[in-house]
Specification:
heterodimer, A: mainly alpha, MetI-like fold, 10 helices, B: alpha+beta, Rossmann fold, OB fold (Dihydrolipoamide Acetyltransferase, E2P), 2 domains, six-stranded mixed sheet, five-stranded antiparallel sheet
């Protein structure tokens, strides 16, 4: 189970990338999920398709599209570098962006289901009691969907931890900078005698993934109970 | 406090076009399902945006305000309590957004929900939920109370549990109450004013005593439900279970009166339970005989006719056959006798504290 220095570095980086991606994606995912669940607007189906695109596209394609747009010569990449001095290509920040994009659809799905389970009539009742729309969301909708939000976050985090194709395409496989757990396992399997170290990393990947799924299941069960008010 | 409502709204095939006023006290919006009752209440609350609206409360333009600024207390058919909050948090919800209710203890006492404060909505019975919902609406310090069939989801005993609270609320709330219902007995018991809706239009409106005694309202209320509402005072409770009540036109003996001696009550006398006689009947088992004058005769679509009667200033309604009208050659202005059976006035039709 003990990892060597390179293994620890990869695990730490994976956790950093996973946590960053999850925290940054969560507010956007809640907003998009709310739009999809509660609003009717022109282009809703287009937005829905865009959100789900990373689920159906080959990850390598997603990674390459990220490189084209967020690379140093890409329009978004150049804008971020000139405005905020933020470079994504071949940095851990880029790995976090790739993880964010890949985990986003899973988050939106879980949160959207939770919002749809909340009766809009209860939100109407809160409006008549004098709460403005944003306050209704904060005091009624959000507490009721919290377990769903957490479950979505866990799924997104697990996806971010395991993301490989888009990450390696967008930010390559640089030890200590962009080499996450899956990239490290892949690299070890490319050199003779790397199997032992790879197996230990695989074990850790399994533990984290199983833990995340178990946590997500447990939280999802609480959605139902919470909305039933028991 | 007067609420003035003028609305036009089209929803598919259904067209709503109504105008009415609701003064102090309870104004009942009565009509069958699909008559547009809930649409009207939702428009007043702001939950529905009608095509055209002019809603004012004492001259204050209401329909341009967002929902949360209207300060209407809305009691829904399904209580719509917040499931993740305790009863106390539900009651105090409006307080978070600036509603100041100075009489919280009185409202909690009036509704009998003091023992429920720490409970979650899921553990409450239907009647308890509805009382909490009522309290929550009252504690939002509303300018207007909207009640959309607050008793419809409850069974008989639960209804009986809430009705006395509504009687009290009506006397103590001090704000106009718009009460939606399709149950004539509730309306007869609670309402001061009545707006009869049919097919998205106002068919009749006015004081409850006038509308309920209007022969033209019979088909709208249903021939079995139509009947005048009378003011009465309890004079005595007899040992044989019969109580004596004083009406404008005389005394009547009725069964099952719960109100104490001296109390003002409302009686609902179904039109089909009133018989007419040209002379004062003798040797009849029915003991309640009132001298009345015919004020209007309205033939129905079927074999029935509705007869409006004046009973010493009170309006009474009788439903007899059109053939009887002919045989007895009844005409407007004629003096006849109305006979009411003591057993025919159901206990549920008698309410205390009526004004």
């Amino acid at each position: 189970m003990m990892l060597d220095e390179a293994g620890w570095t990869a695990l730490r980086l994976s956790l950093l990338v996973g946590v960053t991606a999850t925290l940054l994606a969560l507010p956007i995912a809640i907003w998009i999920a709310w739009l999809l669940a509660r609003r009717d607007f022109w282009g809703k189906s287009v937005l829905n398709a865009l959100v789900h695109l990373p689920l159906v596209l080959p990850p390598v394609v997603t990674g390459y599209l990220l490189l084209l747009s967020f690379g140093r010569n890409g329009p978004a990449g150049r804008f971020l570098e000139e405005t905020f001095g933020l470079v994504l290509a071949f940095r851990w920040t880029g790995a976090a962006l790739a993880a964010m994009v890949m985990g986003f659809p899973l988050m939106v799905r879980a949160i959207r289901l939770a919002i749809e389970a909340v009766d809009p009539k209860i939100e109407d009742a809160a409006l008549t009691l004098g709460a403005p729309g944003w306050a209704v969301f904060g005091s009624i909708t959000l507490p009721l969907i919290l377990p769903g939000v957490l479950a979505g976050a866990v799924m997104g985090f697990a996806k971010a931890m395991g993301e490989f194709g888009a990450t390696i395409t967008f930010v390559a496989n640089i030890p200590g900078e962009t080499q996450t757990l899956p990239s490290a396992i892949y690299a070890l399997l490319q050199v003779p005698g790397g199997e032992d170290a790879a197996i230990r990393l695989v074990l850790w990947a399994c533990i984290i993934a199983l833990g995340a799924v178990a946590l997500s299941e447990w939280l999802a069960r609480r959605v139902a109970r919470r909305i039933a008010g028991k | 406090m007067t609420l003035s409502v003028a609305l036009r709204h089209r929803l598919g095939d259904f067209a709503l076009d109504v105008a009415f006023e609701a003064g102090p006290g309870v104004t009942a919006l009565f009509g069958r399902s699909g008559a547009g009752k809930t649409t009207i209440v939702n428009a007043v609350a702001g939950l529905l945006r009608p095509d055209h609206a002019q809603i004012t409360l004492d001259g204050l333009r209401f329909d341009t305000l967002p929902v949360h600024k209207r300060r209407v207390g809305y009691v829904f058919q399904d209580a719509r309590l917040f499931p993740h909050m305790t009863v106390a948090d539900n009651l105090d919800y409006a307080g978070r957004y600036g509603a100041r209710a100075s009489d919280r203890p009185r409202i909690i006492e009036m509704l009998g929900i003091g023992a429920l404060l720490d409970r979650r909505p899921a553990t409450l019975s239907g009647g308890e939920k509805q009382r909490v919902a009522l309290g929550r609406a009252l504690l939002s310090n509303p300018r207007l109370l909207l009640m959309d069939e607050p008793l419809a989801a409850l069974d008989g005993p639960r209804k009986a549990e809430i009705l006395p609270y509504l009687d009290r609320l009506k006397r103590e709330a001090g704000v106009p109450i718009l009460y939606v219902s399709h149950a004539v007995d509730e309306v007869a018991r609670l309402a001061d004013h009545m707006v009869l809706l049919a097919g998205g239009r106002v068919a009749r409106q006015g004081p409850i005593f006038d509308v309920m005694a209007d022969p033209a309202a019979v088909p709208l209320l249903g021939v079995r439900e139509a009947g005048a509402v009378l003011r009465a005072r309890v004079e005595a409770h007899g040992e044989d279970g019969l109580s004596t009540l004083q009406l404008a036109a005389g005394r009547v003996q009725l069964m099952g009166v719960q109100a104490p001696v001296g109390a003002a009550v409302r009686l609902r006398v179904l039109a089909q339970d009133v018989l007419l006689s040209l002379s004062r009947p003798e040797g009849l088992s029915a003991q309640n005989i009132l001298p009345v004058t015919i004020t209007a005769i309205r033939a129905g679509d079927g074999p029935g006719a509705a007869i409006a009667l004046d009973a010493g200033g009170d309006a009474l309604l009788a439903r007899i056959t059109a053939r009887a009208v002919q045989t007895m050659s009844l005409r407007e202005g004629q003096s006849v006798f109305a006979v009411i059976k003591a057993t025919s006035v159901a206990q549920s039709a008698i309410s205390g504290g009526a004004t």
